[in-house]
């Protein structure tokens, strides 16, 4: 009959393993070679050190990067959507009434929101009239230029196989929000008539 020994494996949670071991040979005799049975591989040997459960395993190899066409597909789709919107605004003049809905804030209170004049500015920008676009809504022109720069950086990084990271952090976002707030307040004051669309 096989004798039983109990070993404790150390780790985050102690685990007791009972292993059935063959009887020890008498002193002076070499142990007989035994053929391994099906269950032998799962048994813990008495003279082998315990393997901790947090032992490092070989990490899987990273997947190869997708082809250039797939990396550029999202950027091309975004450019197509923005180009379609600009083409529509360039073709349908927002200065003529009835084509676009009116700003609800301006209609109900008579105050200009930060986006008032944005469609007129985009229309002027499509037709190459930068001064009129800046006069209609300067933040929209700045946003269009910022979009163009970020899109170009995105395409270059995607073509080179580098990840696109756009993480400005909280400070620039707060500064941008403060600038938009100041712009909105000043354009609604009596001396801010030069910012009216």
TrEMBL record:
<feature type="region of interest" description="Disordered">
    <location>
        <begin position="19"/>
        <end position="44"/>
    </location>
</feature>
<feature type="transmembrane region" description="Helical">
    <location>
        <begin position="72"/>
        <end position="91"/>
    </location>
</feature>
<dbReference type="Pfam" id="PF10825">
    <property type="entry name" value="DUF2752"/>
</dbReference>
<feature type="transmembrane region" description="Helical">
    <location>
        <begin position="171"/>
        <end position="189"/>
    </location>
</feature>
<dbReference type="InterPro" id="IPR021215">
    <property type="entry name" value="DUF2752"/>
</dbReference>
<keyword id="KW-1133">Transmembrane helix</keyword>
<feature type="transmembrane region" description="Helical">
    <location>
        <begin position="140"/>
        <end position="159"/>
    </location>
</feature>
<keyword id="KW-0472">Membrane</keyword>
<keyword id="KW-0812">Transmembrane</keyword>
<protein>
    <submittedName>
        <fullName>DUF2752 domain-containing protein</fullName>
    </submittedName>
</protein>
């Amino acid at each position: 009959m096989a004798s039983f020994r109990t070993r404790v494996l150390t780790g985050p949670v102690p685990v007791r393993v009972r292993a059935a071991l063959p009887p020890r040979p008498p002193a002076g005799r070499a142990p007989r070679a035994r053929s391994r049975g099906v269950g032998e591989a799962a048994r813990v040997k008495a003279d082998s050190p315990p393997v901790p459960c947090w032992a490092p395993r070989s990490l899987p190899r990273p997947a190869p990067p997708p082809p250039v066409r797939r990396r550029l597909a999202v950027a091309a789709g975004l450019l197509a959507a923005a180009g379609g919107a600009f083409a529509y605004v360039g073709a349908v003049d927002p200065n003529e009434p009835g084509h676009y809905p009116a700003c609800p804030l301006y209609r109900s209170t008579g105050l200009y929101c930060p986006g008032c004049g944005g469609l007129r500015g985009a229309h002027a920008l499509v037709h190459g009239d930068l001064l009129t676009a800046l006069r209609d809504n300067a933040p929209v022109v700045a946003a269009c230029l910022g979009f163009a720069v970020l899109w170009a950086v995105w395409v270059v990084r995607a073509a080179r196989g580098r990840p696109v990271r756009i993480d400005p952090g909280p400070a620039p976002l707060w500064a941008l929000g403060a600038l938009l707030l100041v712009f909105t307040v000043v354009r609604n004051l009596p001396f801010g008539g030069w910012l009216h669309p």
